[in-house]
Amino acid sequence: MTIGIHPLHPLFVGEVSGADLTRPLSVAEIAEIEAAIATYAVLVFRDQRITDEQQLGFSECFGSLEHTGGTGISKPSEQRLHPAFADVSNLDVGGEVLARDNRRRLYSLGNMLWHSDSSFKAVPAKYSLLSGRVVVDKGGETEFADMRAAYDSFDDATKAEIEDLVCEHSLMYSRDVLGFEDLTEIEKATMRPVRQVLVRTHPVSGRKSVYLASHIGKIIGWPVPEARAFIRDLTEQVTQPEFVYRHVWRPFDLVMWDNRCTMHRARRYDATSVRDMRRTTVAGDAPTVAMGPSNI
Fold first, then answer.
1. What are phi and psi of 175, to 5 degrees?
2. Could you tell me the residue ranges of all domains in the chain?
3. CA dihedral 47, 51, 56, 59 (to 10 degrees)
4. CATH class name, domain 4-289
5. How far is CA 62 from CA 30, 125, 176, 201, in A?
């Protein structure tokens, strides 16, 4: 397989041609895709009618997969997919659309805030791969922001100010933004804050990016109100239209992105319509900061 790439945005995002993800890939083919995502940060694969097993197999080409157990609020009895999938659909275990006031649905509305997957974990995610099995006719797009280009746009004073900052990330912070405070003590225990650097350097491209997410609630050493106002300001800057690509889903699109240099968010849609989206997540390699007693 020799893939082709058609740019979908002036700064990032490439649509891949010549790829069939229903079959096993060679070492050379995997290397082609990794080289492409290091350049484009987001890759779009069209008309990939893959099974869950095939999605797992493709995802595992790039590293170990995260499992959904241990974070969030879903209980094992509420999960309709293999634990290596994050079920970002609006369906229950029986395939029925979740009620508007369903607790899991309300919690999942946090996906509509700008974020980077698993930044709330000590070892944050590397890649995410989202398969659109059933997509809605209107709304439900996924927006991506290029955090490399956004960092490059900062003036020297801003780059110097953020260079050594460390932030606390937690699912509790992002859900609090939405007013979702209905968390048990056990759930809160799985969401204890972790620390992440605010500026990351990509290990392949060498480009710097600003590592933001709605999961940020503190900047170490800063007063909380000042920190949150600053993070909000940065988020507004990096999600200006010139840095953002909006993906309009077609059935069986698979979109793969690098969480180390992008943010994303889902857009609103008619919650009574079926939307079946299945995400696998490739685990990261290491923490972004040294771990110690103060990070636990």
1. -70, -30
2. 4-289
3. -10
4. alpha beta
5. 8, 12, 33, 19
